[in-house]
Each structure stands twice: as C-alpha cells, then as structure tokens.
Amino acid sequence: MISCSISGRVLWVELITFVKNIAMTDQTATLLSKSDLTHSDLITLLNAQGDLRKNLFARAAEIKNKCIGNKVYFRGLIEYSNICSKNCYYCGVRRENHKVERYQLTDEEVLEAAQFALDNHFASIVIQSGERSDHKFIDTIERLLCKIKKLSDSRLGITLSMGEQTEETYNRWFEAGAHRYLLRIETSDRELYSKLHPNDSIHDFDARIESLRALRRAGYQVGSGVMIGLPFQTIESLAHDLLFLKEIDIDMAGMGPFIEHKETPLYKYTGQLLPRQERFELSLKMVALLRILMKNINIAATTAMQTIDPQGREKSIMVGSNVIMPNLTPVKYRENYKLYEDKPCIDEEAEQCRSCLEARIHIAGNEIGWDEWGDSKHFALRMPDPDKVQLVDPKSINKVK
Q1: Domain ranges, residue 292
Q2: Disulfide engineering: 161 pairs with which of 37, 128, 165, 185, CB 3.0-4.6 Å?
C-alpha cells in the first residue's frame, strides 16, 4: 500500500529530475505546433519516446501555464457510498462483489467532511457514490446538497459523481446546489465498452452518452474521462477517446491508468495487460494531449496515478492537470471504497493528506487556489450569458445560491 505521507529525499530528487526532463528540447517540434491534431497525430504522440516525448510534455506544460496558470484547486473527496446497482466488469464495488462490506455515510458524517473542507479553505467538494437511482437515494442526495449549502452559506462548490440518472434528477440536484458533474465514459469505443459491461439495459453505451447530454442541458459543468491500459484497448482507441472528449466539449476530465481488482471478471486478463509503469506513462501522455487539445478545461490528477508512481499526481500536474482531490472520507470506510487494488491513502486522516499534498504541489512548482472554486474557464467561455456562470471568488461567493 502506498502512503500519501511518503516524502523522502529520493522522491523529491526523482520529481526534480522529472521536471528537467520535460524541458523543451532544441529539436523543432513541428507536430506539436499544429493548430489541430488528427487521429494519426495523436497515435504518433501516444507512442512518443525520447525528444518527442519531452516536447509533448513541455508543450502541455506551456499551454497549461499560459491558458489557466499554475494554480491547483483542491476538491475534498467524500466517498458517500459503495452501494451500486451496476455490475461493471472492472470495478471493485460492482453489485456482484459480495466480499465488500457495503456502507453509506450518515448525514452527520457528510456534513463533518464538508465543514473540514470549508475550514481548510478548499472551497469545493466532490461527492462520489456507487450508482443508484431509487427514490430514497435521490431524495437523500437532494437533502444533503441543501444542508451543505446552508452549512457553508453557499461558499462550497459541489461536484457530484453518481452515475446515470434521469434528467429530472439531474435538474433537482442542480437546483439543490450541485453545479459540476463527473460521468466517466471509461471508453468511447462501443465495442470495447461492450466487453467491459454486461449486455443489458442498465449498461447501455448510448444511454451513457445521452446522460452526458442531459447534464449539459441541466446546466452543469460536465466532466468525463477514460481508463488507460484496459484489456483489449489499443492506441488507436485511446486516440479516439481524446477526440471524443473534445467533440462532446467537456468542461473537466478525470482519467488515469486501469488498475485491476482481483474480485472482478477482468482480473483474469491481468497477464495480458501492459506493465503498470507503461500504463502510467501512457496516462501522462493522455493528460498532456488532452491539455493541448482542450487548453482551458479542468483536468484532475487522479489517485490512480499515485497508485503506480508515488509522485504520480505531481507528475500529472506538471504535464497538464490542475485539480487534485484530497480524501475526506472517514478512514473507517475507505477500505471498502476500493474500485481498484492498491489504492493509496486509505489509512490517513484528512489533515495528513492535506498537509502532504500542499507540500508536494509546491515542490511541483504550482500554488494552491485556496478559497477559490476554480471552475472551468472552458465552461465560462462557452456560456452565452456570463451572468449565469457560477465562477466564484471569495468576495462574491455569498451571492451564489
């Protein structure tokens, strides 16, 4: 198990070496100077080694600093429940995994985590859950959103990640106070999607695409993302994923390496997977390329990056990410919210995680946007009426309801 508190001299030296290695070389990076990258270009860059790889990372870092700056925004992560109606073949909390102990946080536990985020100047939280659409669950989330808004006097921005819901439910949760929503497509390859999920009505590729559209209609900043290094996945498929995310015009992204879980059907393909380090390297390239393709979106440095590389999230920040999610879930529940094996930081209290990440972000040459929602600039520029955009600074934060 990897701990977030790892901070030895060796790791810092490795991070500094990584920084030096992403400096742009003297070689003319003709490919990276193109205004639009084609599917063929993306395949070339996903296979990049040597100077081309360095140029890729340097170009992404340059675009990030120019278009969104060097601030990293904290989203306090609350893993609300591992109860899930889905049976996805890759997920450790899938419905048919009977070895996991199911849980749901109490209202008091959620509000305590939200208060921690507020007191520590995070300004935003993410509430994540297994996928459910029963009336009790929908009503409970709506009630919690209202309570969090009241507790924080609307100072906390709220992202939800709770899977496919009806458009009515999305609207209710938006009106109650959520304004960002992450719904990962996991792969835009229809054939590959069918190999990752049961063939039934609640695992329908088209329904997931329609949910992304419904979220946009409801007014959310919409996020999606993919897993990298899946069984049966090709470089061509990953290149298509990048173009898909651009085509649907996402406002934020969360993606990282696929890490197998032993209590899932896909675990039997472990021997056919890329080595973990290669999955990590490919994930860094995906982050960098998405930053180049979509210059002003928010991109999360996902926890899965750190599972493979102790400084994975920092490296992701250096090549394009600008959001990080310290875990605020009560420690006693974290062991049971393992979507994949070897998840880091499951035994560390929120304060430990906060302090460690703050130091690491500064070492990576970035600063933290304390008391800022850090909403997607891409979303703001797309909105026809600026008065409707929920971009917030500390001085105006109480005006947003």
Answers
A1: 35-399
A2: 128
Place of tokens 């193109």: 34
Q: Where are the alpha helices (DSSP H) in 96-204?
A: 107-119, 135-151, 167-176, 190-196
Which residues, at least 6 apart from 339, have a Cβ–Cβ distance to it below 8 Å?
91, 92, 93, 261
Tell me the three state secondary structure of residue 162. coil
Per-residue pLDDT tens, the chain, 401 aa: give them: 444 444 455 555 565 566 556 655 544 468 998 889 999 999 999 999 999 999 999 999 999 999 999 999 999 999 999 999 999 999 999 999 999 999 999 999 999 999 999 999 999 999 999 999 999 999 999 999 999 999 999 999 999 999 999 999 999 999 999 999 999 999 999 999 999 999 999 999 999 999 999 999 999 999 999 999 999 999 999 999 999 999 999 999 999 999 999 999 999 999 999 999 999 999 999 999 999 999 999 999 999 999 999 889 999 999 999 999 999 999 999 988 888 777 766 666 777 777 778 887 888 889 999 999 999 999 999 876 544 444 333 333 333 32
Q: CB of 160 within 8 A of CB of 144?
A: no
Q: Is residue 48 part of a domain?
A: yes
Coil, strand or helix at 278: helix
Classify residue 21: in a domain, yes or no.
no
245, 289 Cβ separation under 8 angstroms: no
Q: What is d(CA 250, CA 246) in angstroms, rounded to the nearest whole number?
A: 7
CATH number at residue 300: 3.20.20.70
The sign of the torsion formed by the CA atoms of 349, 354, 360, 363 equals: negative
Note whether residue 30 is domain-resident.
Answer: no
Half-sphere exposure of 235 (CA within 13 A, CB side): 15
* Residue whose structure tokens are 């109860």: 83
Count of structural domains within the chain: 1
Is pTM beyond 0.85? Reply is yes
